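Data availability (excerpt). The following record was deposited with the supplementary files.
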Amino acid sequence: MEFYNKFEQKSKSLMEIENIDQCKNGIASKTKHTYSVESSISLPATKFFEKSIIIYMSSSLRYWDFTRLSSLSFDIAVTFVGANNLCFIDMSESYGEIYTSTVRGLDNLKILLLAGNSISNLSYSFFDKMPCLETLDLSRNQIPNDLMSNFGDRLFQKLTNLQQLELSFNFLNSLSPRTFLYNRNLRELFLAGNRFRQIPFNLQYTPNLRVLDLRFNDLITLTADVRYSLDKLAIDNNGFNLYLEGNVLSCGCHDIQFLLWMKLTIVNMDLDRNYSCIDTDGVSRYTETITDLGAYWRKCTGESFLWFSIIMYCLMFIGFLLCVFVTKYKTYIISGLLNLFSETFLKKPSNYEIGVFIGYADKDYQFACHDLRQFIEDTLGLTTFIRDRDLSPSTDLASATVQAIDKSWRVLLVVNETFLSRDHWFLFMCRAATSALTSANPKRIVVLVEDQLHHRLPAELSRVVLEDNIVVTRGNFLDYELKEKLRTRLVE
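Predicted structure:
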C-alpha cells in the first residue's frame, strides 16, 4: 500500500491549470526547462497483485503530478487503465532508484519528467510502451554509464516521436554511437553537465536536430567530420544552435581549422563564440582574442618549418659531402670494402719489384733523372725506373713501359706543356698507368703538374687519380714543400 499512500498524499496538492490547449493537442512547450500543460486529477482506484499493480484512472485526467515523493520506484509491473487522455506525468525529484518494471497503458503519453531521481537501475525496455512520447527529461539521475554506452540505442528504440530529450548532469562519459538511430524526429538534445570529450553520437541519425546543449562537458575540439555535419544540419534545418559554455577548448596550433570554423560557421553558438581555451604554451585565454588567424598560423608553423629547413639543409650538406668524398676516394673506398668483405688486401711496397716508375718528357730528362731520382732513391729509399737509364735502345719501348708500370709500387708522371702537347708517349703512359690501377693499390698514380696546366689533364687520368695525388708545382725544382708532398704520396 506504500505506493498508493504516496500517490494519495501527493494528489492533494496539484499544480494550477496554466494552458489547456497544449496538452490536448499533444504539444508541450519548454522554455528554460519550464513546462505548461493542463492539470486535472481524480483519485484513481488501485488494485494490487503479487507482481503487478493496476491503476484505474479517470478519462478526464491530463496531467499527473508525482514530484517530490520519497523513494518512488518501479520494480513491479504497473498497468494504467483509463489513461487514454493522460499526456503529462511529472515524477521529478521522487528519488526513485529502480525502474525495471513494465509500464503499460500510457500509449498517449507525450511528456514524462523523471529529473532528479538517482536512477541506479534502469531497464532498457522501460519506455517501450510509451510510443507517443515527445518530451523526456532524465536529467540529474546518475544513469549508469554502461547502460548508455552499450544499450543507448535500445533504450530509446521505441520512441520514434521523441522531440526533446534531457540527459544533463548524469556524469556520462560516452554514449553508443547509434543511440539516436531510431529518433529521427529529435529536435532538442540537452547533454550539459556530463563528461563527454567529443560529440558522443552520430549526427547523421538526427537529421532534424536544431538544438544541441553540450555545456560544462570536457570537449577540447570538434573534428572536421563533426564540423561538416553541424554545418549541414544548420543548412537543412534553416538554423542550428550549439551551446559550448563551460568547456575548456583547445586553441593550440593543431586546432587552427577549428578556430577558423567557429568564426565562419552559420551555426548559432552561445557566449558570442568567445570560449575559454588553452593555447600551445599552456596559457589560458579566450577564443575571440585570436583575431588574426593568419599570423597565428605563421607563428605555429614557423618553428616547425625552421627545423624542417635546418634538417633538410643538413641532409643536403651531408649528401654533398658524401658525393664529394665518394667521387674523390672512390677507388680507395672500393679497396677498403674489398679488404673488409673479401680476401683482397691492400698491397705494400714489398709486393713490387720497382719502387717508383717515373714518366716524363724528353725535355725534363735532367729533372727526372737527377733531382727526382736522387730524392726518391737516396732520401726515400725507393728504387726507380727511368727509361733513359734502364732501357737499351733496341728494347720495345711500349712493352717495356707496360711491364715496368705493372712492377712498380707508384707511377709518378711529370706533366708539363711539352709532355701534354708534343710528346706522343704521354697519352700511352697515362693509359698504361690507369689500366694498372687496382683496388689493391688505389694510390698508385701520382701526378706532378704545373699550376697552369692542371685543368688540361686528360679526363681519363683525372677521373681515376685521387685528388690528393695530383700535386701542383711552380716549376721543375724541388723545394721543401714539394719534397714533403712527395714523401707522403710515394711512401705511404
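Summary of structural features: The CA atoms of residues 328 and 466 lie 6 Å apart.
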